[in-house]
Amino acid sequence: MINPKKIEEMAKQLSDSLPSGLKQFAGEFEERSKQVLQNQLLKLDMVSREEFEVQQHVLLKTREKLEALQAQVNELEKKLNATD
């Protein structure tokens, strides 16, 4: 679900932005940043792109069925009103 490559890139960017005096700690900082980022991202209530697309497809199909049913109801109401 969470791309480890992206987390590594973010940790590297944080590490690279350190002042030169702190570069010696960059490796340790990068690892700890990666761990913190992973832990925080795992706490988020997110779904994978694949899950999202599946649900989007289900919603589209449901909407199409609902529209078809609404059209049928409208047609039945017209027939009912015409017989009155």
TrEMBL record:
| Taxonomic classification | Bacteria, Pseudomonadati, Pseudomonadota, Gammaproteobacteria, Alteromonadales
Q: Which UniProt keywords apply?
A: Cytoplasm, Ubiquinone biosynthesis
Protein family per UniProt: Belongs to the UbiK family.
- This protein's pathway: Cofactor biosynthesis; ubiquinone biosynthesis
NCBIfam families listed in its UniProt record: UbiqAccUbiK
- Protein name per its UniProtKB record: Ubiquinone biosynthesis accessory factor UbiK
Q: What does this protein do, in the record's words?
A: Required for efficient ubiquinone (coenzyme Q) biosynthesis. UbiK is probably an accessory factor of Ubi enzymes and facilitates ubiquinone biosynthesis by acting as an assembly factor, a targeting factor, or both.
GO CC terms, sorted: cytosol
Q: Give me the gene this protein comes from.
A: ubiK
* Presence of the UniProt keyword Transferase in the record: no
Q: What is any one GO biological process for this UniProt entry?
A: ubiquinone biosynthetic process
Q: Where does the protein end up?
A: Cytoplasm
